[in-house]
Amino acid sequence: MNPIVFAIPVFMLTIVIEAWIARRRGMAVYDIPDAITSLHHGVLSQVSGLLVQFATLGIYAAVYDNFRAITLPVNSIWVWLAALIAYDFCYYWAHRLGHEVSVLWAAHVVHHSSEYYNLSTALRQTSSGWMLGWMFYFPLAVAGVPPLVLGGVALIDLLYQYWVHTELVGRLGWFDRVFVSPSNHRVHHGQNDYCIDKNYGGILILWDRLFGTFVEEREGETIVYGVRKPLQSFNPLWGNLHNYFDLLHESRKAQGWRAKLGVWLAPPGGWHDGAIEHFEPVDFVRYSKQTPSVVRWYAVLQFAFLVPIISHFIAVAPHLDGLHVAAYALLIFLTTMSLGAVLEGGQLARRCEQLRTIVIGLSFVLQPDWFGFVAPLPMRVAIMLVMLASAVWLARMPLVLEMNKQEGIVA
Ligand SMILES: [Zn+2]
Ligand SMILES: [Zn+2]
Q1: Which residues sit opposite 225 in a β-bridge?
Q2: Which member of 31, 44, 173, 332 has the lowest number of beta carbons within 10 Å of its beta carbon?
Q3: Contact between 230 and 115 (Cβ < 8 Å)
Q4: pLDDT tens digit string along 49-64?
């Protein structure tokens, strides 16, 4: 069983707890559309990761089988520990180049596109990182790290980074200078001048101190999260692709193949020796469509249905045939697209969402089993009723939007 299936309820519970504590402290840490968008990116990242894992792990295993220098035992704690440290070192460089090379940044920018910093931001992960990310870990295959150990330490490294995405934990003294922590990772997500291209570590921040990219969080200077070329969208597909389109557009304009290639290999923002452009934190305005509160909570409710569905998909996908996996993945993808569109408003979004809720409601009650899961009849009927009620309720949505439009709230 994929360990992520067990991690998902922990993620959801801790996000709710963090939001609750932040609310009690009067901190504006969460914005529902932003958090739902982060979670949608996480869902799609898991789906795409699962679809390509046979290729990525397969390439790693092929290199390991044919080119490993030595054979390391899988059952030694020392092998796991050394592999974790070696993986973290490779992660540092993969992450650093993910910020310094445009084509790699196009994938990694997803993780930085949230303008909030909370546990849901940790789950805002790319769906295209696998395309080039694998090459940074080949040295581990050559060094003899077995594929099973690589998969294990990669998961440990990823899960470790979850808890550091919070504003609720302050400075931790010596810990901030040895390990990646909420304080030093906040800096990594900042747009402020001193935050750019700093603190790349995964578990150990020591790599940054070793290679000159470490900076401590400054007291008295509020960090503004996000990227300087803001995403300004709740569409998870656009979130994953927008930077590739920008690069494609720029390389089309460039003259000569050197310049065209250079667009993809240059640092984001282009080649220049001077200091980066100054950023004024007080001028920054976070992206918002001012989605009506009731629509935000509708998206939360629908996402709550998506949580068991994505868990089920991750659990059963290895046992389903290709056609069913593709159909299930498409359904999940369309759900994230539809909910994202609802959060942005508009007639088309409402119609799509109505269609989605009706199709899901009817198929759940009419299907004898849901991709291998035979739900009891009361559950099938209850889900159908909620989905059909959603479709009916959505028909009233234009009134809400129109009312807000008059007030100038919704664009
Ligand atoms: Zn980063
Ligand atoms: Zn992060």
Answers
A1: 190
A2: 173
A3: yes
A4: 999 987 888 899 999 9
Question: Among 13-27, 197-211, 274-288, whose mean pLDDT is lowest?
Answer: 274-288
- Whether 18 and 168 have beta carbons less than 8 Å apart is answered as yes
* Ligand 2 centroid from CA 267, angstroms: 19
> Do 50 and 317 touch, CB atoms closer than 8 A?
yes
Find the ligand nearest to 160 CA.
2
Is the predicted pLDDT of residue 353 greater than 50, yes or no? yes
Question: What distance in Å separates the CA atoms of residue 163 and residue 172, rounded to the nearest whole number?
Answer: 14
Q: How far is the CA of 97 from the centre of ligand 2 (A)?
A: 15
Cα gap 360→183, rounded to integer Å: 43
pLDDT at 47: 96
Scored b (16 or more CB within 10 A) or e, 56-85 reads bbeebbebbeeebeeebeeeeeebbebbbe
Q: Which residue has the tokens 């282009």?
A: 270
Tokens 């295993």 found at: 61
Give the pair of three-digit tokens for residue 112: 């930085």
Q: Inform me whether the pLDDT recorded for 369 exceeds 90.
A: no
Q: CA nearest 185: which of 235, 255, 133, 117?
A: 117
- Which ranges constitute the DSSP H helices of 147-235? 147-160, 175-178, 182-188, 206-211
Separation of first and last alpha carbons in the chain: 45
Kindly give the distance from the C-alpha atom of residue 185 to the centroid of ligand 2, in angstroms, as a whole number.
6
Distance 189 CA to ligand 2 centre (A): 6
Both tokens of residue 323?
A: 């056609």
| Ligand 2: centre distance to CA 291 (Å) | 26
Residue with tokens 């923002």: 269
Average pLDDT over residues 391-403: 68
Residue 160 pLDDT exceeds 60: yes
The 10s digit of each residue's pLDDT in 302-312 is: 999 999 999 99
Amino acid symbol at 259: A
Interaxial angle between packed helices 4-25 and 293-316, expressed in degrees from 0 to 180 and rounded to the nearest 10? 160
The mean pLDDT value of the chain amounts to 92
Q: Write the CB contacts of 2 (distance below 8 Å, at least 6 apart in sequence).
A: 50, 314, 315
Helix (H) / strand (E) containing 386: helix 377-395
Closest CA to 33 of 395, 310, 287, 401: 287
- What distance in angstroms lies between residue 196's CA and the mean position of ligand 1's atoms? 10
Q: How far is the CA of 209 from the centre of ligand 1 (A)?
A: 16
Mean pLDDT value across residues 272-280: 78
